[in-house]
Amino acid sequence: MDLLSALPDDVRSHILSFLTTKEAALTSVLSKKWRYLFTRVPILDVDDSVFPYPEGFMDFVDRVLSLQGDSPIERFTLKCEDGVDPDRVNGWICNALRRGVSELYLSINFEGEDYLLPREMFLSRTLVKLKLTSGFGLHWCTGPDATFLPMLKTLHIASEMMSMDCDVKMEEFLACFPVLEEAEMTSMDWIDPVDTVSSPTLKKLTVHTTGMKTIQNPKSISFVTPSLLFFAYSDYAAEDYPLVKLNNVAVARIALSLTEDQTRRMRAPRKDLSEGDVVLQFGNAVKLMNGLQNVKELHLHPDTLEVLSQCCESMPVFNNLKMLIITSDEGRGWQAMPALLRNCPQLEFLLIKGLVHHVTNQCGDACDCIHKKQKGRSLKSCPVKVFVIRGFTGTVKEINMIEHFLDYFPCLKKMNIYVDEDVPTPLKYDRRFAERVLEMIEEFDYSYSCSVQLLYE
């Protein structure tokens, strides 16, 4: 007898739990001792893409569930696409729910199907983790007494469209999960332009909206999540953020999107804007930033910088901020950068993805694009020690920016400049050009007290 077969059944079934259900089923041909062992594994992981035909996949899942009987199941992972019978899919899900499944991961892509998830799933008393993914659409049962998952701690929804039986605002939706700790909702939309994200138990929250339904900026969005530690928020800039309680958030990633027309109007003189222009309200984004004053790590999208240009004078002080990550774009400005850098008195690490940005008269002293009498003032008060630049292409403008930062960051100890090898630039194809750029970087390394390195990634 081989050593593996000599192990106790519980040990061997635990080993099989690291395989997909199809892979585990293949061990049944080894010997009589292995024949039905895979049916004792409390983890079911099935994927129709590894079967040549949908009929064979459906028969396989039916057979496995039949052999397992009523034995407890801990985790059920199901991936399927067109060709698989939706009624049989719901039967499998209900089978797992009856057997007390605690983790349910569903990736269902039925194109053109009016697919309804089983109602039993929305009233489960055993589910702890639920992940729903679809490239098309999923139907969520809502309404009075239609959803209540008292044990759910993790909820991930990633669907191009999530339809509901009735219009339920986010505040009411989250109330269906009284112990929820982690929520991730991508490709979603606000049911109402005035809404509140409220949960006393949430610790990690990711919200990514598309605006596909409303085609407008939200009127008012509030966040009341006092236990939240991680916050990733991507949305069209709202007109107001009246209530923001995010005092314990340590890591925040903020992407407040603008249309090209809104960006143009924001840069225009205020006297040229009509009285009801929505961009006049974007300065209220400072209320969102005020609620994030205690963050230790902050990520900002290019559009977010543009939005924050409307509230430079009221920018909060981030006394706990150690790490600032900024994504730049040639179509978006740095008007908010001086105020931001001045208001980070404990900043140690700065990362900028792309130095190229839209130049305006309000870029301020953080930028070398426009000559200023008080050049570098905001940089002189910034205590950053490590500065990382990504997406470097070797242009004269970038070189001048790097020299500007080296001149005015007083505490800088290390600067790493990364070239993206996957992006076609002269640094990759022109050897002489690359050598000249490297010589300039080496000169910086020699001339300044901090370490300056050109690296490839």
Automatic annotation (TrEMBL):
Q: At the top level of its lineage, which domain of life is listed?
A: Eukaryota
* FBD domain sequence ranges: 377-455
> PANTHER family of this UniProt entry?
BNAANNG15180D PROTEIN (PTHR31293:SF24), RNI-LIKE SUPERFAMILY PROTEIN (PTHR31293)
The protein here is known as: FBD domain-containing protein
What is the organism of origin for this protein?
A: Brassica oleracea var. oleracea
